Amino acid sequence: MKRLEFSVPLPGEGLGVGPVFRLLVLLLLFSLSAGAQENANSRQARQMFDRAYEKVFGPQGSSLSYKVNIIGIYKTEGTIWMKGKQSKFVDSKLIAWNDGVTAYVVDKRKRQVEIHSSKSEKYDKHSKKFTFNPDDFNYHVDKEKSGYKLTLKAKPGKKGIKEAYAWLSNNYEPQRLRIKVAFFWTTVQINNFHSGNIDERILLFPRQQYAGWKTVDRRRE
Fold first, then answer.
1. Each residue's pLDDT tens digit, 43-102
2. d(CA 132, CA 111)
3. Cβ-proximal residues to 30 (8 Å cutoff; 6+ apart), any chain
4. CA–CA separation, 107 vs 126, rounded Å?
């Protein structure tokens, strides 16, 4: 499994475009104690994590709606579609398309389109703040009525995410996430999750639709 870089918007900051999605599946884990039974539980939890990861980030693509709440101060919600290197992200302020090379960010209030390199930090200014490596955590799973609760705690000396929880359905689809970074908690409620059957036309920037809008090309910045 590849190393994940993702963004967690901080209170008072704008939302990293698109990468909020990368936050959505990283929370599926917990710590082990010694003993064969706990080790078996940890292996099972990691397997569930891998299955959930595949449903979201696999080649079939996925889509979902989400609501983010950071310690009750910063709240936002939106929808994202993702397949391969392509993605589309929508919230109340922005719409963004990313084809893996070029990112188009539409500011609905300003009637403005910004064009960025997909790898630009100006486009994804939060993505370098935290890095998620599945091997940096210990895992645990508990069975609940509606599915499974996966918990993680960071191994000693690891930076970034310290603790995280993920609630999965019985078929391993993400439903709710809770993650602790530094001293604050972020909660993500996930709805309308679909794995596969992504209409790739949704992922294409509709250039003609914004032909009359102001365009700012920031690819060389």
1. 899 889 888 888 988 899 999 998 988 877 878 889 999 999 899 989 888 899 999 899
2. 35
3. 45, 138, 139, 140, 141, 150, 151, 152, 153, 165
4. 18
Strand pairing of 62-70 and 112-117? unpaired
Q: Which two tokens stand for residue 201?
A: 């036309």
Report pTM.
Answer: 0.75
Q: How far is CA 148 from CA 46, 58, 167, 191, in A?
A: 12, 21, 6, 16
Contact in structure between 14 and 94 (CB atoms under 8 Å): no
Please say if the pLDDT value at position 15 is more than 50: no
pLDDT for 121 equals: 64
Quickly count: other Cβ atoms within 10 Å of residue 127's Cβ: 20
Q: Which residue has the tokens 């602790």?
A: 180
Locate 144 and state its tokens: 């609940």
Main-chain dihedrals φ then ψ at residue 43, nearest 5 degrees: -65, -40
- How does DSSP classify residue 1? -
DSSP β-ladder status, 102-107 and 184-195: unpaired
Q: CA 22 to CA 209: how far, in whole Å?
A: 28
Which residue's structure tokens are 């078929």?
A: 171
- At residue 142's C-alpha, the angle toward residues 53 and 146, to 5°, is 75
pLDDT tens per residue, range 99-138: 989 999 999 999 999 999 887 766 555 444 445 677 888 8
Under 8 Å between Cβ of 191 and 169? no
